[in-house]
Amino acid sequence: MKMWTLSCLLCMTAVLQATFAKPTQEKRDRVHHGRDLSDHVHNDAEDFQYDHEAFLGKEEAKTFDQLTPEESKERLGKIVDRIDKDKDGFVTHSELHSWIKYTQKRYIEEDVMKHWREYDVNKDDKVSWEEYKNTTYGFYTDEEFEGVEDKNSYKAMLARDKRRFQMADQDGDQIATKKEFTAFLHPEEYEHMKNVVVQETIEDIDQNGDGFIDANEYIGDMYGSETEEEEPDWVKSERQQFIDFRDLNKDGKLDPDEVAHWILPGQVDHMDIEAKHLIYESDKDKSTKRMVTCDTSVGESLRTTSGWTTFFA
Questions:
Q1: Which GO terms describe its molecular function (predicted)?
Q2: What local confidence, expressed as pLDDT, does residue 16 receive?
Q3: What is the pLDDT of residues 38-91, one digit of tens each?
Q4: How far apart are CA 276 and CA 37, in angstroms?
Q5: Is 307 exposed, middle or buried (0-12, 13-18, 19+ CB in 10 A)?
Q6: pLDDT bracket for residue 291 (50, 70, 90)
Q7: Whose CB among 49, 107, 236, 264 lies 3.0–4.6 Å from 40's, allowing a Cys bridge?
């Protein structure tokens, strides 16, 4: 298994410091790729924001965007010293995989805690359905939202949140523990929440309310055009994907099982894939099985080495 060469790892700072403009994505990706490593599309030909967030975590990546090059070098040096668990001067695939796993778990925990403080109104270290509902929607005792503009939309959102909360609340006491609240906020992380993820996806895309997703609804979720212009090639390709790979029973529409097969395509360890990707792309000569470092510590090497280039150049 390949490992990172230090000279390429150093170039991460250039990536962390740079801001790359990305075009608006016309195509929406509904697939849940395990734990989301980044909100960005993984396309190194355009920029490295996906790798940026996968390596640092989403919140830490935002912090790095505000640092000067020297501050980034120093911060990154400290991070790499933490990744090198056995302090042997090398970063292995296993160490990098563990680090990415840690940063993603930290993001979810921080996201849950941010909302936890907001919704745990009585500070009993639990979040009841009433606390969540009242904080989110206000004190509408009849849940009819009378006098509220677009009340039908609010009623639909409330019903959807209630259904998800009840699914996450495994003991049925209408009070969420921290673990249950995490399942509520991040249902894609929990096996018992997968049906909710599928149902919500269908509701988002199903325009005629028949409980299925036909080809036009499938395409309409990704691409919309108000003109009569010819569909782009990627849209034509997606239509063929629908026929060949999405509509498994060939009845012209996707049922819940087919939607699950589409958006929940098995247990793929994307953190492991990203760790391998970073090592492979960085190990330019493909000759080492270990990440070559300088005589000093990994972090000190990062702080003192010059000649920075773009990370995946």
A1: calcium ion binding
A2: 39
A3: 565 655 555 566 665 666 766 676 777 777 878 877 877 787 788 888 887 777
A4: 14
A5: exposed
A6: very low
A7: 49
Instruction: Give me the residue label for tokens 């907001």.
Output: 118
- Give the C-alpha separation, 191 to 146, whole Å: 37
So what's the pLDDT on residue 52? Answer: 58
Q: What's the CA gap between 100 and 86, in Å, rounded?
A: 17
- 3-state SS track over the chain: CCCCCHHHHHCHHHHHHCCCCCCCCCCCCCCCCCCCCCCCCCCCCCCCHHHHHHHHCHHHHHHHHCCCHHHHHHHHHHHHHHHCCCCCCCCCHHHHHHHHHHHHHHHHHHHHHHHHHHHCCCCCCCEEHHHHHHHHHCCCCCCCCCCCCCHHHHHHHHHHHHHHHHHHCCCCCCEECHHHHHHHHCHHHCHHHHHHHHHHHHHHHCCCCCCCEEHHHHHHHHCCCCCCCCCCHHHHHHHHHHHHHHCCCCCCEECHHHHHHHHCCCCCCHHHHHHHHHHHHHCCCCCCCCCCCCCCCHHHHHHHCCCCCCCCC
> Most confidently modeled of 39-48, 124-133, 276-285, 290-299?
124-133
Half-sphere CA count of 202, side-chain side, radius 13 A: 21
Report the chain's C-alpha Rg in angstroms: 23
Gap between the Cα atoms of 12 and 279, Å rounded: 12
Cβ distance 211 to 199 under 8 Å?
no
* Lookup: tokens for 51: 């790798």
Alpha carbons 224 and 24: distance in angstroms, whole number: 13
pLDDT of residue 287: 45
| pLDDT value, residue 275 | 74
Question: CA nearest 220: which of 58, 30, 80?
Answer: 30
